[in-house]
Amino acid sequence: MIRTDGGSLIAGNADGPVSFEADHFDLELGQGWSVLVRGDAHRVLQPGELRHLREECDLRPWPSGERDLFIRILPTQFTGRRSRSQVARQVTAGKAR
What pTM was computed for the model? Predict the structure, then answer.
Protein backbone atom coordinates (compact mmCIF):
# COMPACT_ATOMS: atom_id res chain seq x y z
CA MET A 1 0.00 0.00 0.00
CA ILE A 2 1.35 3.42 -0.95
CA ARG A 3 0.02 6.79 0.19
CA THR A 4 0.76 9.56 -2.30
CA ASP A 5 -0.77 12.61 -3.95
CA GLY A 6 -2.68 12.81 -7.20
CA GLY A 7 0.15 14.56 -9.04
CA SER A 8 2.86 12.00 -8.29
CA LEU A 9 4.50 9.78 -10.89
CA ILE A 10 3.03 6.61 -9.41
CA ALA A 11 -0.45 8.20 -9.32
CA GLY A 12 -0.19 8.65 -13.08
CA ASN A 13 0.38 4.89 -13.40
CA ALA A 14 -1.95 3.79 -10.61
CA ASP A 15 -4.12 1.52 -12.74
CA GLY A 16 -1.69 -0.85 -14.40
CA PRO A 17 1.71 -2.51 -14.13
CA VAL A 18 4.24 -0.72 -11.91
CA SER A 19 7.59 -1.16 -10.22
CA PHE A 20 8.22 0.39 -6.82
CA GLU A 21 11.59 0.49 -5.08
CA ALA A 22 12.43 1.37 -1.49
CA ASP A 23 15.99 1.73 -0.21
CA HIS A 24 17.73 2.48 3.06
CA PHE A 25 21.38 2.78 4.02
CA ASP A 26 22.52 3.22 7.62
CA LEU A 27 25.80 5.12 7.59
CA GLU A 28 26.52 4.32 11.22
CA LEU A 29 26.21 0.56 10.69
CA GLY A 30 27.61 0.65 7.17
CA GLN A 31 24.82 -1.50 5.75
CA GLY A 32 21.55 -1.12 3.95
CA TRP A 33 18.93 -2.77 1.79
CA SER A 34 16.96 -2.30 -1.40
CA VAL A 35 13.62 -3.91 -2.24
CA LEU A 36 11.85 -3.85 -5.61
CA VAL A 37 8.19 -4.82 -5.98
CA ARG A 38 6.61 -5.38 -9.39
CA GLY A 39 2.92 -5.87 -9.93
CA ASP A 40 -0.39 -4.28 -10.84
CA ALA A 41 -1.38 -1.04 -9.13
CA HIS A 42 -4.95 -0.09 -8.26
CA ARG A 43 -6.35 3.03 -6.64
CA VAL A 44 -8.27 2.34 -3.44
CA LEU A 45 -11.73 3.79 -4.08
CA GLN A 46 -14.15 2.05 -1.69
CA PRO A 47 -15.27 4.52 1.02
CA GLY A 48 -15.10 1.96 3.85
CA GLU A 49 -11.60 0.85 2.95
CA LEU A 50 -10.43 4.45 2.58
CA ARG A 51 -11.85 5.29 6.00
CA HIS A 52 -10.07 2.27 7.50
CA LEU A 53 -6.74 3.26 5.91
CA ARG A 54 -7.02 6.89 7.08
CA GLU A 55 -8.22 6.18 10.62
CA GLU A 56 -6.78 2.84 11.66
CA CYS A 57 -3.61 2.25 9.67
CA ASP A 58 -0.38 4.07 10.38
CA LEU A 59 0.48 4.83 6.75
CA ARG A 60 2.69 7.88 6.83
CA PRO A 61 4.22 9.14 3.60
CA TRP A 62 7.88 10.12 3.69
CA PRO A 63 7.48 13.52 2.00
CA SER A 64 5.50 16.27 3.70
CA GLY A 65 2.21 17.64 2.41
CA GLU A 66 -1.21 16.22 1.65
CA ARG A 67 -1.17 12.61 0.52
CA ASP A 68 -4.77 11.49 0.11
CA LEU A 69 -4.40 8.90 -2.65
CA PHE A 70 -3.94 5.28 -1.58
CA ILE A 71 -2.58 2.83 -4.14
CA ARG A 72 -2.40 -0.91 -3.66
CA ILE A 73 0.19 -2.93 -5.52
CA LEU A 74 -0.74 -6.56 -6.08
CA PRO A 75 2.77 -8.00 -6.27
CA THR A 76 3.84 -10.45 -8.93
CA GLN A 77 7.55 -10.26 -8.09
CA PHE A 78 9.70 -9.22 -5.12
CA THR A 79 13.46 -8.82 -5.32
CA GLY A 80 15.84 -7.38 -2.79
CA ARG A 81 19.33 -7.26 -1.56
CA ARG A 82 21.30 -6.28 1.47
CA SER A 83 24.50 -4.32 1.05
CA ARG A 84 27.30 -3.83 3.53
CA SER A 85 30.39 -1.68 3.37
CA GLN A 86 33.77 -3.39 3.47
CA VAL A 87 34.26 -2.21 7.06
CA ALA A 88 30.88 -3.69 8.11
CA ARG A 89 31.82 -7.01 6.47
CA GLN A 90 35.14 -7.08 8.34
CA VAL A 91 33.44 -6.31 11.67
CA THR A 92 30.85 -9.05 11.07
CA ALA A 93 33.57 -11.52 10.09
CA GLY A 94 35.54 -10.67 13.25
CA LYS A 95 32.49 -11.33 15.45
CA ALA A 96 31.86 -14.68 13.78
CA ARG A 97 35.27 -16.02 14.75
Answer: 0.71
